[in-house]
Amino acid sequence: MKPFKLILIFSILFITKNLFSKTKFNEGYKKGYAEGFCYDKGISCIAPIPPIAPIPGIYESFDSYKDGYLRGLEHGKAESVKTSANGRQPIDFGEYYQPVDIDFVNKALSAKENSLRSANSYRVVDTKANSRAFVARNINPKIKKEIKILNKRNKNWVKSSKKIKRDNRKKSMVSLKQLSDGWYKIYIEATTFYKKENRNILKERFIQIQNGKPVIYIGNNNLAYVLEEAYSVSGRYYLTMILPDRTKEGAFFSIYDNKPLKKAPQLNMPKAAIFYTNSNLNSGGDITVVINREPDFPELTITQRINGSPSCKSQNNRLFLPQGVYNYYAYNKFSYWEGQITLSEPCNTLKLNIN
Known about the structure:
Layout: H1 3-20, H2 24-37, H3 65-82, H4 102-125, H5 128-167, E1 182-194, E2 197-210, E3 213-218, E4 224-233, E5 236-242, E6 248-254, E7 271-276, E8 287-291, E9 299-302, E10 318-321, E11 324-331, E12 336-343, E13 347-351
Parallel strand pairs: 7-13
Antiparallel strand pairs: 1-2, 1-6, 2-3, 3-4, 4-5, 5-6, 7-10, 8-9, 8-11, 11-12
Helix pairs in contact: 2-3
């Protein structure tokens, strides 16, 4: 290769790197990485020099400081876990496996075999009555179990809300502008169904303040979201959070403590689970997908087929959950599915086939 071409290539790489290093995303990443590495370690923690910021992902933008900050926070926390106090990697003793109950396994295998026989016979006969019966046998026990757990969860929410109201009855609202940098406890307004009626409740959540402004919100399942804004409305506050797919959700909240938390709250980065089908739904109707995660059992509905693979920027048929492996089941009038979905990337998809 000629020297001129080499010089040109290196010049382009240098300019590109220099421009990227000055983006809002990069600045946010450096800040977030340092805070993530020292997350919940106290003031004595010294963060290392952050690595070069990655290229913004499918849900991120070069022009967003908060996107970079949240990504840096995730990477800094991960690096902190890997590295012990003396800089060595912790010993990996492998995964722990619960001792196996042979009798239970045999019973489970027999039940599964019987279930498969039922499934095969109904598919061969292929009548609507048999299909409905097969779906009902699979989902009815699950739904009954979920209702019991959800009722218990809602009862606990109502009880916790009453305590929150009692504890803060005589306190005055705090101004966000007067708060120093750190994490703060807030109480968002929500509604839950309990004893045959909707109840207005308060839920404990957390926000992070930087330079007098809320930047991060920790919501359900300790998932962290970027905050677009928070402003005063009729003696309380209203926040707008930005979900990874750029949709926005809002909530009213109250804040009574003007001192930051001594210990940072747990946080998880949201991972998208997208379910879809390329098959016609026909007379089976919409597909309901339920994630077997107590106590919420999040669910979504597939209303139509798509051609090819779904877009990660789609705002349909998706849930946001912490990283992990989840059991799910799905059904419509005549079909039933169950299995696992692994959430390890920002966007994770799973196709449901209809025979």
